[in-house]
């Protein structure tokens, strides 16, 4: 009785699963256009196609091909093996949300633009083998959130940083001229600390420098200097986040500065700057001549002089005599000394000719007046 009840309860679920599998098998549509000498992707393919093979043609995957691909929304597998693809443009596979396998091996790909794999959220296998890729930015793989297999075999890659692929299980890197200097340390750390399997590890060898040619890229013995140049795996994520924040802040500031410099008219700051420079130069010259040529200000420091008038001489004599008498009254000295001082003062007044001795008085004029 219990068994019967259980069967009754789970029977609708079982039937729905069978129905989904049958519908999946029925909706799988394969289109094989290999070795047709096509230079463009045909536009008259069944829109319900799920597996499309365009290998061994002359397709370049240009703008027109990209627009045609956008029509096949149900594609789960796309094969473009041995065509004439040179560059993967941004949004080359934008509408292929259901794509799980993408194979573009044996082409002439040299450049993969940022955003080339946008929209491939369900992609699990990516084959880029035997192309002419020289440099590869690992950030282009960010949209591939569930990628499990990445094949980069047989390219011209000498340096490759650790890609941000959390679900990657297998990576193929042999057949590239790897430069095993310190720059490859992050990739080695990632290969040794993650669960990713490096296929054909024994033949994924270093090409540079010569002393490391016998090592696999996964077993290169790096020295302490390399570890000091590159962050450890523990702090790598923090370093990347900090670097991205600082770069974005710097770029925004630089963009604002450039935008302001482009749109705002030039003011009169240059005129002010010229005035400041001229003022500094003139002041420096004045100070230089003042130090090197001090004769000119000696004249300014000298005092003006003139002949004393008669009433000025009398006033001077009275003042001087009064001053002497005050001294005699205040000082408590003997009479003899007082008499001597008075006589000296009196003789000085009688000999005075009404002029104050001045070194600037011309001797010739003094002689004429006498």
From TrEMBL:
Q: Where is the LRRCT domain?
A: 176-227
Where does the signal sequence lie?
Answer: 1-19
Write down the superkingdom of origin: Eukaryota
Its chief place of residence is membrane
Which GO biological process categories is it annotated with?
host-mediated modulation of intestinal microbiota composition; positive regulation of canonical NF-kappaB signal transduction; positive regulation of non-canonical NF-kappaB signal transduction; regulation of cytokine production; regulation of inflammatory response; toll-like receptor signaling pathway
Recall the GO molecular function terms of this protein's record: signaling receptor activity
What keyword terms does UniProt attach to this protein?
A: Glycoprotein, Leucine-rich repeat, Membrane, Repeat, Signal, Transmembrane, Transmembrane helix
Note the topology in the membrane: Single-pass type I membrane protein
Provide the Gene Ontology terms for cellular component.
Answer: plasma membrane
Ranges annotated as spanning the membrane: 270-291
Q: Where in the cell is it found?
A: Membrane
Its annotated function is as follows: Pathogen-recognition receptor which mediates the activation of TRAF2- and TRAF6 NF-kappa-B signaling pathways and induces the expression of pro-inflammatory cytokines. In kidney, prevents infection by uropathogenic bacteria by inducing the production of cytokines, chemokines and antimicrobial substances. In gut, involved in host-microbiota interactions, plays a critical role in promoting the recruitment of immune cells and intestinal inflammation.
The record ties this protein, via PANTHER family, to: LEUCINE-RICH REPEAT-CONTAINING PROTEIN 19, LEUCINE-RICH REPEAT-CONTAINING PROTEIN 19 LRRC19 FAMILY MEMBER
**What is the official name of this protein in its record?**
Leucine-rich repeat-containing protein 19
Q: Which organism is it from?
A: Rhinolophus ferrumequinum
Chain's gene name: LRRC19
């Amino acid at each position: 009785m219990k068994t019967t009840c259980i069967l009754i309860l789970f029977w609708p679920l079982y039937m729905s699963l069978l129905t989904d599998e049958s519908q999946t098998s029925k909706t799988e549509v394969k289109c094989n256009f290999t070795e047709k000498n096509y230079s463009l992707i045909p536009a008259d393919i069944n829109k319900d196609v799920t597996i499309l093979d365009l290998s061994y043609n002359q397709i370049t995957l240009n703008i027109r091909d990209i627009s045609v691909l956008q029509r096949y929304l149900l594609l789960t597998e796309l094969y473009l093996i041995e065509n004439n693809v040179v560059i993967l443009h941004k949004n080359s596979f934008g509408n292929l949300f259901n794509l799980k396998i993408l194979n573009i091996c044996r082409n002439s790909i040299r450049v993969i633009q940022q955003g080339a794999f946008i929209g491939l959220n369900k992609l699990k296998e990516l084959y880029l083998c035997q192309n002419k890729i020289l440099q590869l930015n690992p950030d282009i793989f960010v949209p591939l959130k569930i990628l499990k297999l990445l094949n980069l075999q047989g390219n011209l890659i000498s340096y490759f940083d650790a890609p941000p692929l959390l679900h990657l299980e297998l990576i193929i890197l042999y057949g590239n001229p790897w430069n095993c200097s310190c720059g490859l340390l992050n990739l080695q750390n990632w290969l040794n600390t993650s669960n990713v399997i490096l296929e054909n590890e024994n033949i994924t060898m270093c090409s540079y420098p010569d002393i490391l040619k016998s090592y696999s890229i996964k077993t290169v013995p790096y020295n302490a200097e390399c570890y000091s140049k590159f962050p450890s795996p523990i702090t790598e994520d923090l370093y990347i986040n900090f670097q991205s924040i600082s770069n974005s802040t710097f770029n925004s500031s630089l963009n604002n500065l450039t935008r302001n410099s482009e749109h705002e008219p030039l003011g009169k700051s240059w005129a002010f700057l010229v005035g400041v420079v001229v003022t500094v130069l003139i002041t420096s010259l004045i100070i230089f001549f003042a130090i090197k040529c001090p004769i000119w200000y000696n004249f300014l420091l000298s005092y003006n002089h003139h002949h004393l008038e008669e009433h000025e001489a009398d006033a001077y004599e009275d003042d001087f005599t009064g001053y002497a008498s005050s001294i005699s009254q205040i000082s408590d000295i003997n009479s003899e000394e007082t008499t001597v001082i008075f006589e000296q003062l009196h003789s000085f007044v009688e000999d005075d000719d009404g002029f104050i001795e001045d070194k600037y008085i011309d001797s010739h004029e003094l002689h004429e007046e006498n």
